[in-house]
Design goal:
This protein is α/β, with parallel strands linked by helices. It contains 8 helices and 5 strands, in the order βαβααβααβααβα. Helix content is 50%, strand content 13%. It binds 2'-deoxyguanosine-5'-monophosphate.
Length: 210
């Protein structure tokens, strides 16, 4: 039987370096002979993703509940492909996931448990690497653009919400990494944690919030 792949998620504030670390991890795993693919949410290429992109670019308005459900649908659309990769022995490294979903929606005042519910049953990550960066430091990194949520107030509130989510997920699965270090140092830390994980991944993929 093929050993299944690991499901690894990066979370963090905007500008915390997630996309760079996802790309580097996928490349280094493949170079060392571990099959790995990257993915990101929101996936802006699908029909729901295009609606999300327009909302984020502030070209359209949507009720807070409706956009939350669209973000969740965007994850469900990809879920079978993630499971298929994992079962085929490919590690999946994902840039944001359902934890961003709760963090960004709950800070708008939606109920935390209501925010969790549409994501119940999604593939459960084996490891969540939370790239921690002070919101002020994140804002200095190239500044914010014009997308919705790219303001210091939102990012500060989101950071607090991520802390609550991390404690609900539990420290076995949720690891906080200092993203204030240089890119290579963060990459080395990531790689060390992923090597530990790959030694022990086994059994079926779990279900989120179940
Ligand atoms: P990115 O493509 O990683 O820059 O993310 C786009 C923005 O959308 C970012 O500010 C975080 C936010 N976001 C990501 N996922 C969700 C989600 O599930 N729900 C909500 N409300 N916002 C999200």
């Amino acid at each position: 039987m093929v050993k299944r792949g690991a499901f690894i998620v990066f979370e963090g504030l905007d500008r915390s370096g997630k996309s760079t670390q996802v790309a580097r991890l996928v490349e280094s795993l493949n170079q060392s002979g571990e099959k790995a693919v990257g993915c990101r949410f929101p996936d802006r290429t699908t029909t729901t993703g295009k609606m999300i992109d327009s909302y984020l670019a502030q070209k359209s308005e949507l009720d807070d509940h409706a956009i939350h459900l669209l973000f969740s649908a965007n994850r469900w659309e990809r879920s079978q492909a993630i499971l298929a990769d994992l079962e085929a022995g490919t590690t999946v490294v994902c840039d944001r996931y359902a934890f961003s979903g709760i963090a960004f929606s709950a800070v708008k005042g939606l109920s935390y448990t209501w925010c969790q519910s549409p994501d119940i049953g999604l593939p459960l990550p084996d490891l969540v690497l939370f790239l921690e960066l002070a919101p002020a430091a994140a804002a200095l990194r190239g500044g914010f653009g014009n997308e919705r949520y790219e303001t210091s107030e939102v990012q500060i509130a989101v950071k607090d919400m991520f802390e609550r989510i991390g404690s609900d997920v539990g420290s076995e699965r949720w690891k906080v990494l200092d993203a204030g270090r240089d890119v290579d140092a963060v990459e080395k830390d990531v790689r060390g944690r992923v090597e530990e994980l790959l030694k022990k991944v086994e059994g079926p993929v779990g279900k989120l919030w179940a």
